[in-house]
Amino acid sequence: MNFAISPSTIITAEQIPYVTADEAFDLMQTALDRFIRLIESLTAEEWSKPTACTEWNVRDMVAHQAGGFASGTGYREMIHQLTARPKSRPGQPIEDSINALQLAERADMTPAELIAELRQAGEKASHNWAYGFRLVKWASIPHPIPGRLSMRHLMWVIHSRDTWMHRLDVCRATGDHFEQTREHDGRINELVVRDLGHTLPMKLNGRAFTLALTGIAGGTWQVGQGNPEAVIEMDTLDFNIYASGRFSYEEGISRARFSGDNNLAGLAFKNFSVLY
Known about the structure:
The protein is of the alpha/beta class. 51% of the residues lie in helices and 13% in strands. The protein folds into 2 domains: 21-179, Four Helix Bundle (Hemerythrin (Met), subunit A), CATH 1.20.120.450; 186-270, Nonspecific Lipid-transfer Protein, Chain A. Helix 1 runs antiparallel to helix 5 (111-131) and helix 2 runs parallel beside helix 5.
């Protein structure tokens, strides 16, 4: 298929504006509100459904979210989760061991108790992540996906993205409708593309492609330097599922369309990896 997209109609992924503290708070609150509305509607049977995160069912995913928001309620809980977590294996992201602690500490909680914890911790954590924790926002840590991860980026972008993605996970597991609006879901997706635009160009050898994502939350961007030599078109939700590692390469590529230089498109596609 031939895609005729004028370079003048798109911006580069690197030019996507970053969030402010106020926007980060709004994104987090909306992501949390939608997540809670979804899980409150689940039947007892749906809480035990398996998810794309293969070691977790829906209840485990909610427990992780409750633990994640609890970590934002203050320095004491943040330090507790960092120090009480199991020791990470070599090469294992630190969040994996933190997630394990969150689930272990909530193993005996009922769905109603997990929802109550989310409600209690949610707004405080969202406010702290947006406006507080000033002593640590300047810090960054090594991470296997972005290379380095700043605490401000974790708090302003990754936390809302994580809640958004897990809402999609739950909807895929249960067959429930995934609520979308251009304002919220489009901005979440745009910030995913922004992250990709900062990590992928170094692997493209000075070349560029056009990323055309369809659906309510979609858009069109250039990734890389110079004139785009290929186009990758994909549904926006499929793109996020693949970029987060939930689709295999084979499943992802079956849902994408390439035009132009297929070798360049294939190289880029193999390196679609973003932190969620």
